[in-house]
Amino acid sequence: MEFAGSHILSVHQFERTDVERIFAVADRMGPYARRRRVTRVLDGAILGSMFFEPSTRTRVSFGSAFNLLGGEVRETTGFENSAIAKGESLYDTARVLSGYSDVIAMRHPVAGSVAEFAAASRVPVINGGDGSNEHPSQALLDLYTIKSELAGRGRGIDRLRIAMVGDLRFGRTVHSLSKLLCLFERVQVTLVSPGELRMPGEIVEEMRRAGIEVIESDALEASISHVDIVYSTRIQEERFGTQAEADLYRGRYRLNQSIYTHHCEPNTVIMHPLPRDSRDHARELDDDLNDNPNLAIFRQTDNGMLVRMALFALTLDVVEQVDKHARDVNWYTAGRF
Amino acid sequence: MEFAGSHILSVHQFERTDVERIFAVADRMGPYARRRRVTRVLDGAILGSMFFEPSTRTRVSFGSAFNLLGGEVRETTGFENSAIAKGESLYDTARVLSGYSDVIAMRHPVAGSVAEFAAASRVPVINGGDGSNEHPSQALLDLYTIKSELAGRGRGIDRLRIAMVGDLRFGRTVHSLSKLLCLFERVQVTLVSPGELRMPGEIVEEMRRAGIEVIESDALEASISHVDIVYSTRIQEERFGTQAEADLYRGRYRLNQSIYTHHCEPNTVIMHPLPRDSRDHARELDDDLNDNPNLAIFRQTDNGMLVRMALFALTLDVVEQVDKHARDVNWYTAGRF
Amino acid sequence: MEFAGSHILSVHQFERTDVERIFAVADRMGPYARRRRVTRVLDGAILGSMFFEPSTRTRVSFGSAFNLLGGEVRETTGFENSAIAKGESLYDTARVLSGYSDVIAMRHPVAGSVAEFAAASRVPVINGGDGSNEHPSQALLDLYTIKSELAGRGRGIDRLRIAMVGDLRFGRTVHSLSKLLCLFERVQVTLVSPGELRMPGEIVEEMRRAGIEVIESDALEASISHVDIVYSTRIQEERFGTQAEADLYRGRYRLNQSIYTHHCEPNTVIMHPLPRDSRDHARELDDDLNDNPNLAIFRQTDNGMLVRMALFALTLDVVEQVDKHARDVNWYTAGRF
User: Fold this and answer.
1) What ipTM does the predicted assembly reach?
2) N or C: which end of chain C has fewer CB within 10 A?
3) Within chain C, what is the greatest distance between any pair of CA atoms?
4) Taking CA atoms, what residue in A is nearest to C94?
5) Is C173 a catalytic site residue?
């Protein structure tokens, strides 16, 4: 695809070469995200950050990524008091607000609404999550993390063996990641969930059509013995009618250091889209894994910066200029990464 | 007036030459707002954005305008948890907060409170709307749009023929625009509203005293046949006691392409302060006007950037330095305007 | 202490030389805060501003201070919708969010939580208030103000005579200031409060152990006759069960110009952490003091900028570079200070 001026709305818009292009640019963002260098390539540019549904982590990650490229951020959060509540169409909102920035990152609770907004926007729009539909930058950062973690072992994403564990029905991130994996060769995906929280059938079908070997299971230990990645997820309690219903599933799959030691291969990487639920009745990833060097969950969020910087650099077409506007960092940065 | 260091509180503080000065500066902001050039003239300056009442559009417009001049924005929104709730006077709030910025843009639900705040502020304050009282930057951007739309026809604001339609009682923007029009010659204003929502008598009187020909009507079609501008407004439902009461008036005046074609002159410009109410029971400006090249509603909001940039440049006295701190834009900007 | 990379969590972490170092750096920030000069030393750096409890004044002060050094601010306010509500530990929150910024300023309603967060953070954390526990930057700006106000009289903090008046039980600022005063010589502290709102015994003990002469009283006039500073405080109504309970104490001690003239020494400095309660039933500092040149309450908040700039410059280790990245201000600044 041609990135300059494009919206980033869905993982389905990418071919394999597009993903590889994004990852190549993300690699080049490392020195800036790690504070070895500062670049001001987007000095003067404005990101419109519009989160019609709260998400501290994603919102701040987009904003900081834009700041790291030298740009400014104008934020809008919340929904109740907006013009939309006074009957304004998304078309009007998009026409107006896209006149105030150079690129927009947007989250919205209604599936499809970010694409509807983008259709009327005069600047590129990056989907930061539209309901249970899409969250492409999360899927990209997950896949980029898989690539990075396996690179040290001389492995690529082809032939990946991954177990996805937990709430696979409501967990948007595993849906998007599954779709992205369809672009790669000889992938094996093991889906571990309670029967009621299985991965939607159409996604399983999409994976199988793409040549992915899909195994479904409801047992944790047996499913994580021969995988490169265990991708754990939280029970999406906000999608259930009651806490009691969520409690039926919470705590069903708990990975801790003991289970890891007894069942996983020595270098199995542990991922999670975060937040992980650390309350006693949940603990899908126990705190005793925090010292395990294969716990990659915080490298994941760090990688989110690289991927989002790459998406901005690509849609605003400044990839080749990033290094030209760079200089040394002159403040304390020890211990940062 | 002398702009440097001045507050911008009311349209009444302007003489005609002041308005013309603001518009001349706004014209010079075009290349920056349209992303042909970037200026950093206010690099290091801080805008204190204080919206004690929500307004996404106005808040973001002020903030982005300041960013376009190179400055930073520190925002405060909401009211409930502020020091004011603990008994702090507006005087104290102003003394404190004006120490944190170089200029302030403020909205407040109580009429007169922005002026009270400004009296204690140590930096210039721009009124972003104080209850049903004043919203000078909106009136200026409306008038600037009128000027710009008519300029292509070799016309100025003198001899303007304009119809204001809808809720003229509670619509703050038509009040302020009416006052500004008093500065110009041989203007004709047609006021179209239900009897209960007529323009306040004192504003009608003010216009007549200034020499404006004012016609009042409750019929749409007959009133828009010989005007340069139709300025449509939303029913301000939040000012009514109940939705049922608002429903009495909502949908009363609906302008659509068919009515436009049959009743308006070929080049009549359509304006609206936005948001327009696009729900079925309202639709004061139908979506089928979206392809009409004379629909100027999004040019209005774009012009808001120019006017607000001009107000910042004037009150901070950097007009003549804007171009000296300019350089080319190095990111993707196609399709922006 | 070594400031570079350190957290600023408690006044107890400072020795006298540390306080003097902070104040010396704060002195050097004056030209930038007063807009004589602009520095861009932190151009490219990001402050993560995390206010899990609202505080307009402190939040904006930290943000503007960082902007004055050239850095960017990414803000998070509120608590309800955050990942923490989904069961995320402070450890996880800190690990994630500290990857998005170079330094963090944080307020949290729970005592000790900022320190817990800091323990997992990869960047320096500055405590902006953790419940009723600590608020070190406020204590520092109070003490810096005392130093500055007395400097013109050839006095230092040693031998200070200060009266603290009002709600000494719940007022966090007087607790922290008392602790800081323990670092100085021959200080005399008079505590004026209703019996029920006395300074906690352990803090009185700490002061006495440090050699401070502590006098307790419940009478205002007699206690302010021979002091350099009267430090007045608001009744912390939000800490009482009911407004009726707060009303028992509100308005008990009212300092106004008449009392000041009759009872204070001619140059006695009046301080207050703000907000002061200007409602009729409170008025601990009457508005008729506003023209008294010894009313230092707004110099206090201005000094907050200097002290917070100093804390950022020290923890990010750029003190010696601030002046190297400086240039003249090119916008209107008259009347600022």
Assistant:
1) 0.95
2) N
3) 58
4) A298
5) no
Assess A63–B contact: CB distance below 8 Å, yes or no. Answer: no
CA dihedral B200, B203, B205, B209 (to 10 degrees): -170
Structure confidence by residue, pLDDT tens digits, C25-71: 999 999 999 999 999 999 999 999 999 988 899 999 999 999 999 99
The 8-class DSSP code of residue C218 comes to S
**pLDDT (mean) for C198-209:** 97
Quick one: pLDDT band at residue B168, thresholds 50, 70, 90?
very high
Q: Does domain B137-298 have CATH number 3.40.50.1370?
A: yes
- Record the tokens describing residue B194, joined without a space: 């239900």
Radius of gyration of chain C (CA): 20
Report d(CA B262, CA B260) in Å as an integer.
Answer: 6
Domain B11-135+303-328 has CATH 3.40.50.1370: yes
Say how far apart CA B145 and CA B26 lie, in whole Å.
11
Answer yes or no: A108 catalytic.
no
pLDDT of residue C131: 86
Tell me the chain C residues in contact with residue B76 when contact means C-beta distances shorter than 8 Å: 56, 59-60
- The whole-angstrom distance between A177's CA and the closest CA on chain B is 29
Chain A partners within 8 Å of C100 (Cβ)? 60-61, 64, 305
Q: Where in chain B is the domain with CATH 3.40.50.1370?
A: 11-135+303-328, 137-298
Instruction: Give the helix/strand (H/E) hosting B60.
Output: helix B56-68
Domain A11-134+304-328 part of CATH 3.40.50.300: no
The answer, for C302 touching chain B at a CB cutoff of 8 Å, is: yes
Task: From the candidates B7, B59, B108, B135, give the one annotated as an active-site residue.
Answer: B135
Convert the pLDDT of each residue in C100-111 to its tens digit.
999 999 999 999
- B83 reaches C (C-beta below 8 A): yes
In order, the DSSP letters of A90-112 are HHHHHHHHTTS-SEEEEEESSTT
Interface test with B, best of C237, C278, C331 (most B CBs within 10 A): C331
Cβ-count burial A193-230 (b if 16+ within 10 Å, e if not): bbeebbbeeebbebbeeeebebeeeeebeebbeebbbb
**Where do you find CATH 3.40.50.1370 in chain A?**
11-134+304-328, 137-298
List pLDDT tens digits, range A217-250. 999 999 999 999 999 999 988 788 888 888 889 8
- Cβ contact (<8 Å) for B100 and C282? no
The catalytically annotated residue of A58, A93, A173, A268 is A58
Does the pTM surpass 0.90? The reply is yes
Q: Where in chain C is the domain with CATH 3.40.50.1370?
A: 11-134+302-328, 137-298
The CATH number of C11-134+302-328 is: 3.40.50.1370
Angle at C57 between CA C52 and CA C61, to 5 degrees: 95
Residues of A in contact with B72 (CB under 8 A): 72
**Whether the predicted pLDDT of B318 surpasses 80:** yes
Kindly report which listed range (A327-336, B67-76, B85-94, B300-309) carries the lowest average pLDDT score: A327-336
C partners (3+ CB pairs within 8 A) are A, B
Which of these is catalytic: B7, B59, B107, B234? Answer: B107
Q: Is A186 a residue whose pLDDT tops 60? A: yes
Q: Is C254 on the interface with B (CB under 8 A)?
A: no
Express each pLDDT in B280-316 by its tens digit: 989 999 999 999 999 999 999 999 999 999 999 999 9
DSSP code string of B154-188 = T--STT-EEEEES-TTT-HHHHHHHHHHTTSSS-E
